[in-house]
């Protein structure tokens, strides 16, 4: 099962990649919104989940998700990971309530917490579909 | 033959003249402003009680000494040249020159000097009337500090974001380390990530604290505006990244040295760059150019933001003038820049085109080493 990690911090990508691989996922990391869109539009793309940073160098995380829905065929659920927003910020609340993102995790994250969120989203998504 | 002359009137006149003289002396002695007179070379002739009080020197101690000798070392030439210009018949403007008290304290004084003319209209000396700016400076320092804290508030989001990334990496690496069956190479990799994260976090905090600390008013020295600009850009890097703004510094090959207060001049740069950030709602570019032109250090901050409407151009440096919503800016940032630059003997200007962007230009006297 492939997970796309989008974060402009190389070391955050490293941490998420190591963690997810340890849990049996295939991981692709990219460091910008543009690279994420390119990869998702690529021929070999098959993505089950996206972990997106809320503040990327070239685009806001939630705007990237909107563009993914519009410009690619990817329907994979998105977890927003952020060191900037809080759960009760309106951007996060609105994105959750409209279903644009499936859940939200703050940085720094506890591995148990983020893995719990991933399993919850994947299970939820399976039932939802 | 005995000739008698009635001198009653003469005695009365002399007494009257003495009274006028005493009255004038009392006026000078009672004035709160500092009143000093010198001969045409700058040697002190009179020294009012208010100057005695502020400087700690009695009139009898300073009479005959050169006035510039009692000024701040770095500004002695300014006082000398001000007196010389008056003696040469030129007009001079108000000038801020520090007096050095008997105990070594620098007293900021705003001097207004005028020539004393003799009967032949020749300049025989100079009268210098000064106003002690100590209290005003202390008040300004408090305003500068509160504005600085307000700027820190604006930067808080960017700083939190910037700190949480290295924290997240260190936190993850530590969690990996706590798990069994890691290879020695991976353990080393985790330790390096943790060390890198801590180093980066403390750099961010250190930059921030350096900016946040209060600036002692007399902390004046020779500094390189290029180095100060580089440091300021690095403090603001988290904020720039957050708003997708590219900040580019362009520097002269040689150091651009000015004499000034490091912390206050950094506050000027910080406020100008933050102002530029605020004018760009969808990212953009800020260019800061530092160069020496003749005897001037010129710093230009150019943004690709929304620009300033012509109607507001004359008001942007006014205190409390803001177009930001309540709670989003005090309206003091640019007026503080203006005050600080003027205190350093420089000037600040603005060119702006609505919809295209703005350029703030700061000109400061180059340090003549």
- Report the helical percentage of chain A: 40-55%
Multimeric state of these chains? heterodimer
> In angstroms, what is the radius of gyration of chain B?
29 Å
Query: Which ranges of chain A are low-confidence, i.e. pLDDT below 50, for 5 or more consecutive residues?
Result: none
Please give the largest β-sheet of chain A.
Answer: 5 strands, parallel
The major sheet of chain B is characterized as:
5 strands, antiparallel
Strand content of chain A: 15-25%
Continuous helix count of chain B: 10
Q: Number of DSSP strands of chain A?
A: 5
Q: SSE string of chain A, helix = H, strand = E?
A: EHEHEHEHEH
- Terminal residue distance of chain A: 16 Å
Task: Provide the residue-averaged pLDDT of chain B.
Answer: 87
As a whole number of angstroms, the C-alpha radius of gyration of chain A is 13 Å
Please give the order of strands in the largest beta sheet of chain B.
2-1-5-4-3
Total count of helical runs of at least 4 residues of chain A: 5
Structure description:
The complex is a heterodimer of chains A (129) and B (369). Chain A has helices at 10-22, 33-40, 61-71, 90-97, 111-128; strands spanning 2-6, 26-30, 49-53, 78-82, 103-106. Chain A has 129 residues and is of the alpha/beta class. Chain A has a 5-stranded parallel beta sheet, sandwiched between helices. The radius of gyration of chain A is 13 Å and the shape is globular. By secondary structure, chain B is of the alpha+beta class. Helix content of chain B is 46%, strand content 24%. In chain B, the strands form 3 sheets. Chain B has a 5-stranded antiparallel beta sheet. A 5-stranded mixed beta sheet of chain B has the order 7-9-10-12-11, with helices on one face. A two-stranded antiparallel ribbon of chain B has the order 6-8. In chain B, strand 3 and strand 4 (106-117) form a beta hairpin. The longest helix of chain B is centred in the middle third of the chain and has 44 residues, at 134-177. Chain B starts with 7 loop residues before the first helix and ends with a strand. Classes of the chains: A alpha/beta (129), B alpha+beta (369). The A-B interface holds A 9, 11-12, 14-16, 18-19, 55, 57-58, 82-84, 106-111 and B 157, 160-161, 163-173, 175-176, 193, 196-197, 241-242, 244.
């Amino acid at each position: 099962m492939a997970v796309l990690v989008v974060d402009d911090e190389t070391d955050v990508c490293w941490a998420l990649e190591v963690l997810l691989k340890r849990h049996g996922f295939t991981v692709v990391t990219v460091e910008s919104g543009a690279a994420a869109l390119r990869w998702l539009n690529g021929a070999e793309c098959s993505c089950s989940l996206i972990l997106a940073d809320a503040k990327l160098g070239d685009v806001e995380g939630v705007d990237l998700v909107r563009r993914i829905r519009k410009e690619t065929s990817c329907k994979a659920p998105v977890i927003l990971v952020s060191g900037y927003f809080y759960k009760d910020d309106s951007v996060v609340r609105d994105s959750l309530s409209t279903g644009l993102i499936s859940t939200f995790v703050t940085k720094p994250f506890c591995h148990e917490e983020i893995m719990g969120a991933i399993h919850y989203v994947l299970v939820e998504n399976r039932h939802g579909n | 033959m005995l000739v008698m002359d009635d001198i009653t009137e003469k005695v009365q006149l002399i007494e009257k003249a003495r009274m006028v003289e005493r009255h004038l002396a009392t006026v000078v002695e009672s004035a709160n402003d500092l009143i000093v007179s010198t001969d045409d070379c700058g040697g002190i002739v009179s020294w009012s009680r208010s100057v005695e009080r502020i400087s700690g020197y009695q009139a009898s101690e300073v009479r005959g000494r050169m006035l510039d000798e009692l000024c701040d070392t770095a500004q002695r030439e300014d006082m000398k040249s001000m007196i010389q210009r008056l003696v040469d018949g030129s007009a001079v403007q108000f000038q801020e020159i520090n007096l050095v008290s008997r105990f070594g304290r620098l007293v900021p004084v705003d001097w207004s000097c005028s020539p004393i003319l003799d009967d032949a209209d020749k300049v025989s000396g100079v009268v210098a009337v000064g106003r002690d700016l100590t209290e005003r400076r202390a008040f300004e320092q408090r305003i500068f500090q509160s504005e600085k804290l307000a700027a820190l508030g604006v930067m808080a989001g960017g700083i939190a974001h910037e700190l949480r990334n290295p924290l997240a990496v260190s936190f993850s690496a530590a969690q990996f380390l706590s798990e069994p069956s890691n290879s020695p190479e991976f353990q080393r990799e985790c330790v390096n990530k943790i060390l890198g994260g801590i180093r980066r976090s403390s750099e961010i905090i250190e930059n921030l604290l350096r900016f946040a600390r209060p600036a002692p008013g007399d902390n004046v020295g020779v500094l390189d505006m290029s180095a100060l600009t580089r440091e300021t850009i690095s403090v603001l890097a988290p904020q720039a990244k957050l708003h997708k703004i590219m900040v580019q510094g362009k520097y002269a090959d040689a150091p651009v040295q000015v004499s000034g207060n490091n912390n206050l001049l950094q506050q000027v740069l910080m406020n100008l760059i933050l102002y530029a950030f605020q004018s760009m709602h969808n990212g953009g570019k800020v260019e800061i150019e530092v160069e020496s032109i003749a005897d001037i250090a010129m710093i230009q901050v150019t943004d690709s933001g929304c620009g300033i409407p012509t109607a507001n151009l004359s008001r942007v440096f006014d205190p409390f003038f803001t177009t930001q919503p309540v709670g989003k800016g005090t309206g003091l940032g640019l007026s503080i820049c203006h005050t600080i630059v003027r205190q350093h003997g420089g000037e600040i200007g603005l060119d702006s085109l609505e919809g295209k962007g703005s350029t703030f230009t700061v000109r400061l006297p180059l340090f003549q080493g």
